[in-house]
Design brief:
The chain is an alpha+beta fold. It folds into four domains: 55 residues, no CATH class; 52 residues; 75 residues, no CATH class; 40 residues, no CATH class. 31% of the residues lie in helices and 26% in strands. The protein contains eight helices and 14 strands. The strands form four sheets. The chain has a four-stranded antiparallel sheet with strand order 1-2-3-4. Strands 5-6-7-8 form a four-stranded antiparallel sheet. The radius of gyration is 39 Å and the shape is elongated. The protein starts with 12 loop residues before the first strand and ends with a helix.
């Protein structure tokens, strides 16, 4: 039996439970039990320490009520879906670069905002709205042809329509984009009966990647061979300039290429 020195405060209320009376402990666990009545009307026997600490707040009806509420993650998803829908709707009809947003589009796999857009050239396709607003998608792909140029092949005088992408001229043939200089070298090799492999590297001798004349192109069988050539060329150029006493003049002409020595950092 638990010795009760101070009677329970009859009528005192903790959360939704009001104390009615002390009860005898029949579990012999050394804890004090009391009879309480919930706001919903049900009567229950609970531990006095659990009632005072707040671990027990009701007869169980509070838990049942909370279970009827939608889980937090469902509420978050619902709010996110509402924001996504609102963001799409407010952009309908707006134009970004060459793209006009026409209508929402439900992507079969991705959950981010997708829309149906129309390019100035008339092409209609689906794209990510966030990428459009950020300027990462500006057209259906036709924008790269705005500054396109014509290249005349030295091999067969073929007129090739090409465009600058990433510092290299590219062409569109057979449904894929190819590097112009690689296409031209492959054509040249075919005339002498040599096949250009997928491991071949085409090097621009004067480092101008837009100069695709055959006199400015050379061929390496692999990437390691190309890297070795650059290393050997740089070493030979440095030794030549140093031997001729032209290294200081070179650094004056190209100050960004002059390295800072450890001694200069200390001083």
């Amino acid at each position: 039996m638990v010795k009760i020195s101070i009677p329970a405060p009859i009528g005192a209320k903790f959360n939704k439970l009001a104390i009615l009376a002390d009860v005898e402990n029949t579990r012999n666990d050394g804890k004090r039990y009391i009879k309480v009545q919930c706001e919903c009307g049900s009567i229950k026997i609970v531990r006095y320490d659990s009632l005072k600490s707040g671990r027990v707040k009701s007869c169980g009806c509070l838990l049942a009520k909370n279970l009827k509420k939608p889980p937090l993650y469902k509420t978050i998803l619902k709010s996110a879906a509402a924001r996504k829908k609102n963001n799409i709707n407010k952009n309908i009809g707006k134009k970004y670069s060459k793209l006009t947003i026409l209508a929402p589009y439900k992507h079969p796999k991705q959950k981010c905002s997708w829309v149906k857009v129309q390019c100035d050239c008339g092409e209609i396709f689906n794209a990510n709205l966030n990428r459009i607003c950020a300027g990462r998608v500006k057209s259906c792909g036709c924008i790269i042809y705005d500054n396109a140029t014509d290249f005349v092949s030295e091999i067969d005088q073929e007129k090739i329509h090409c465009f600058n992408a990433g510092g290299y001229y590219r062409i569109t043939k057979f449904g894929s984009r190819q590097l112009l200089h690689r296409y031209e070298v492959k054509k040249a090799f075919n005339t002498i009966g040599i096949e250009l492999s997928s491991q071949s590297i085409i090097h621009h001798i004067n480092r101008d990647t837009l100069n695709n004349k055959l006199s400015n192109l050379c061929h390496f069988n692999s990437s390691p061979e190309h890297v070795k050539y650059h290393a050997d060329f740089d070493n030979a150029m440095y030794n030549f300039l140093e031997k001729k006493g032209l290294l200081d003049d070179f650094y004056k002409s190209y100050p960004k290429l002059k390295p800072t020595t450890i001694m200069e950092m200390i001083n």
